[in-house]
Amino acid sequence: MRIGRIRSYVIRYEDTNDHGNWRHTVLVRVETADGVVGWGEGIAMWPEACKATRLLIDEGFGPLLIEAGDITIDEAWRRMRTHAWWYGEGGIACFAYSALDMALWDIEGKIEGRPICDLLGGKVHESLPAYVANHVNKATREENIAEVVGFKQQGYAGCKLGFGKRGLSDIGRDPDNDVAFVAELRAAVGPDFDIVVDAGNGVVWDRQTGIDTVRRMAEYGIGWIEEPFYPTRIEDYRALKDALPNVPIGTGEREFTVTQYKRLIETGTVDVVGVDPARAEGITGFRKIDALCGAAGIAINAHAWSTAILTAASLQLSLASPNARLIELKPFPVPVQGDLVEAPIGQENGVVRAPAGPGLGIRVNEAVVERLEIT
């Protein structure tokens, strides 16, 4: 393909899934010389990081791809990585070229008239279980439990619950309270609804507290415990794995590069590797990480908690991966999901299927992008 034009956008939106807080991300529109348009996302999150990402696209990686002439996706990916050798082993550079890589895959699918999952070797799954990815942020334990029960009634197959998040809840602040919440939630949803606990950066446990708390939670059945410690605390992860070998551990969302994921997987401390294609070197990076997961016999979980563009990319990748088990969805409507694309991705009867279109399978409403853009 030959790239003709590239346009990046920093967008801002109010997210009802995050207690009404404002969130930011970077979208990129790539158009070939023949007029085929692809979209990508770099989930830099904070406004200053998003603006820096936009600068790298507009003044660095974008001109690099345009000046390259005819280029394949793999060659573009290698050139962008090489271009950023001094400043780009992770961080802002990865957001920028992840977005561009995603857009190139969208273009390739549209040129071929095929969805990205077909370009990746074909569907391994016709559908995937839909898990609601929700922040526990209501004022009372009862309200939070009722909310999850409602998700089950809507048809979701399971939930991944973020503890210690912004909002009114005290979940994630006290281990005894957290265990009691999991126990009461299990009683409310029954045994056939998966519960994944996402501790994340809002929960701070020392090693022994983490081991003790996870052990108690596991008595009520959890799909996995995600990021119980800061990602760099590998010895704490190893201690948790040694103490509770039958409790799956998830981590990885804050890694950036294939090399970093390789190091993480080689520690033997992770069972479910979280990968965000809008951060971790794009679709090309994800498929390389997926191969590492397959060789290690562990699962991969695509982070999809942003716009419909990222959701579509994560779904295409997951449907083509034998190591993927589920797809996460935001439960509440936001403009970057429902308004951004003509046919939003959602669950039906507890599963999610690929949209019918080529590439990412979505059609972006450019008027919404322009409405949400900030300078």
TrEMBL record:
Domain of life of the native organism: Bacteria
Cofactor(s) it depends on: Mg(2+)
Xref: InterPro entries: Enolase-like_C_sf, Enolase-like_N, Enolase_C-like, Mandel_Rmase/mucon_lact_enz_CS, Mandelate_racemase_C, Mandelate_racemase_N_dom, RHMD-like
Keywords on record: Magnesium, Metal-binding
Species the sequence originates in: Devosia geojensis
GO MF, one example: magnesium ion binding
Protein name in UniProt: Mandelate racemase/muconate lactonizing enzyme C-terminal domain-containing protein
GO biological process entries: amino acid catabolic process; carbohydrate catabolic process
Mandelate racemase/muconate lactonizing enzyme C-terminal domain location: 142-247
UniProt xrefs under SMART domains: MR_MLE (SM00922)
Name of one Pfam family that matches: MR_MLE_N
